[in-house]
Amino acid sequence: MTTPIINERIEINPKILVGKAIIKGTRISVEFILELLANNWTYETILENYPQLQKADILAAIDYARIVI
Fold it and tell me: Does the pTM exceed 0.70?
């Protein structure tokens, strides 16, 4: 079961990053975002360093991980 935010923000395409879950329109994986958060990066720090992302993308990555795990 996926939520609308996941359907809207997360993409899995075997042609991009070997099928890892990514933020749509980027090559930034959910796994990478989770690693940044695990290394104490704040939402603000992530957004400053990756301006192509929005806060909703980070939240979608967290939600995706919650559902998958």
Answer: yes
Residues in CB range of 38: below 8 A, 6 or more apart = none
Predicted confidence (pLDDT) per residue in 36-45, tens digit: 999 999 999 9
Residue 7: CB atoms within 10 A of its CB come to: 11
For the chain, strand residue ranges (E) read 10-12, 21-23
Q: Please, what CATH class does the domain formed by 4-68 belong to?
A: mainly alpha
Q: Give the start-to-end residue ranges of the domains of the chain.
A: 4-68
Q: What gap in Å lies between CA 69 and CA 54, rounded to an integer?
A: 23
